[in-house]
Write a sequence for this structure.
């Protein structure tokens, strides 16, 4: 399954691919950057509900988008992160910058 | 009696094969009936080492990636080998967040992930010749089941 997205106002919810590795990461990054620019996105929410696998390439994708969104005065959040993916994310210390949220509504409320 | 089983695969250094490699190793390990978490640990570690062989080892020229996998009782042993450019400073390479390719949005967390998810990770590398990453993991799920059976 590949990436789908939904844009409400200038908030974008991106449902990520089933498997996020280096092969997929480049494609995901390019697609996201295009969508962010085209729609002047302010808040980007990564929805992991379809994602069953992620390695450290995914950390690079999230960190890269985080830096980009922050530079433009925006923010980034995560939802539906399963425990295996959380273990990968925890190692990187990324949770000091980007947080998990209960739902899209919760993320938007706290980030907008 | 010791249970032993081995396998070897060899494939091109193409990023499409990252998914192939981790699924093959996972299928081989599945005979030990690992937990979902143990299987995720192994798949993620394989993905890290294979990706490194492809993007760092063979960054300039394509080549072959070799995986050797061995099961001895409840221990899984994996070697991922490339004949690429090698690593000049292994200690530095293994540091969390160290990457030689920050412009590619690499996080520098590959070795850290392998070390966290496997019991033991060793790296052998010769500049200009290539790199071998050797990893080991004892499947505690299997050990627990066996001990339970013994106690009955
Ligand atoms: N197979 C390899 N061949 C050559 N260099 C490697 C290899 N594996 C790792 N390296 C080096 O070690 C560094 C750290 O690897 P890693 O922790 O996986 O981080 P990343 O892949 O994100 O850079 C790489 O940036 C690279 O310089
Ligand atoms: Mg790596």
């Amino acid at each position: 399954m590949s990436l789908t997205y939904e844009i409400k106002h200038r908030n974008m919810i991106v449902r990520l691919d089933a498997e996020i590795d280096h092969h997929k990461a480049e494609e995901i990054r390019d697609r996201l950057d295009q969508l962010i620019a085209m729609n002047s996105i302010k808040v980007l929410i990564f929805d992991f509900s379809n994602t069953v696998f992620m390695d450290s390439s995914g950390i690079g994708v999230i960190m890269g988008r985080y830096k980009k969104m922050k530079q433009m005065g925006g923010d980034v959040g995560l939802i539906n992160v399963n425990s295996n993916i959380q273990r990968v994310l925890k190692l990187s210390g990324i949770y000091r910058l980007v947080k998990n949220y209960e739902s899209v509504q919760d993320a938007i409320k706290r980030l907008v | 009696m010791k249970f032993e089983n081995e396998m070897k695969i060899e494939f091109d250094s193409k990023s499409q094969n990252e998914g192939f490699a981790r699924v093959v190793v996972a299928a081989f390990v599945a005979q030990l009936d690992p937990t979902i978490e143990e299987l995720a640990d192994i798949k993620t570690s394989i993905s890290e080492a294979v990706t490194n062989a492809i993007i760092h080892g063979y960054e300039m020229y394509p080549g072959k990636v070799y995986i050797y996998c061995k099961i001895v009782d409840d221990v899984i042993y994996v070697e991922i080998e490339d004949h690429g450019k090698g690593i000049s400073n292994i200690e530095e390479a293994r540091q969390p967040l160290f990457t030689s390719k920050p412009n590619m949005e690499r996080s520098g967390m590959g070795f850290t992930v392998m070390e966290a998810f496997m019991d033991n990770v060793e790296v052998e590398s010769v500049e200009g010749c290539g790199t071998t990453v050797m990893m080991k993991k004892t499947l505690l799920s299997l050990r627990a089941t066996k001990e339970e059976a013994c106690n009955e």
Chain A touches chain B at residues 19, 21-23, 25, 29, 53-57, 59-61, 63-64, 83-84, 87-88, 91-92 (CB under 8 Å). DSSP finds four helices and seven strands in chain A. The helical segments of chain A are 22-38, 56-71, 83-92, 104-111.
